[in-house]
Automatic annotation (TrEMBL):
InterPro entries: Xyl/GlcA_transferase. It comes from the Eukaryota. The lineage of its organism: Eukaryota, Metazoa, Chordata, Craniata, Vertebrata. It is a single-pass type II membrane protein. The gene is Large2. It comes from Eurystomus gularis. This is LARG2 glucuronyltransferase.
Length: 187
């Protein structure tokens, strides 16, 4: 509730028209098909403490959202900056002139990861909003994630696309892009 207005106000207050920044909307999830949607951060915190909400994908893919620093978000009252980390894939709000999603990554896998990597390569600030949140509701697995899980060929193709993406980053950003390749190899 109120997320749209909060985002608009944050964009104005943070003067996003004049800076390269990605506003991170912290993501949570529930395992319940029915949920009384929280109206405030205080309600989200209460639901987290009661176990009816969890940080997004913490039990499946914690790397994807851990850099959001949910412990800091709990008490934050102003936006705070976080650093890029491998496999970071937050939900973001960015200006229209930001880098587009890489069209190689359709279906399941690496669309948000590659986008955040490109934003970081272009030196975007990654700012977590202290009073924003979204909640992922449970649903049946998508056709594409099923293909990813069941097909070695699909996973192999995705790996090839990731390697091509890293090569393209190296060509565009030079030595600054080495941190992405180094991070990938250390995983």
């Amino acid at each position: 509730y109120g997320l749209y207005d909060y985002l608009r106000n944050s964009i104005q207050q943070l003067e996003l028209a004049q800076r390269k920044a990605a506003l991170i909307v912290p993501a949570f999830e529930t395992l319940h098909y029915r949920l009384t949607f929280p109206r405030s951060k205080a309600e989200v915190l209460s639901m987290l403490d009661m176990g009816s909400l969890y940080t997004f994908r913490y039990h499946v893919w914690p790397k994807g959202h851990a850099p959001t620093d949910y412990a800091k978000w709990r008490t934050a009252t102003v936006p705070y900056r976080v650093a890029w980390q491998p496999d970071f894939e937050p939900y973001v709000v960015v200006r229209r002139d930001c880098p587009k999603y890489d069209q190689r990554f359709v279906g399941f896998g690496w669309n948000k990861v590659s986008h955040i990597m490109e934003l970081d390569a272009q030196e975007y600030e990654l700012l977590v909003l202290p009073n924003a949140f979204m909640i992922h509701m449970p649903h049946a697995p998508s056709f594409d994630i099923s293909k990813f899980r069941l097909s070695a060929g699909y996973r192999g193709c995705l790996q090839t696309l990731r390697e091509e993406f890293h090569q393209d980053l190296s060509r565009r950003y030079g030595a600054a892009a080495l941190k992405y390749l180094t991070a990938e190899r250390s995983l």
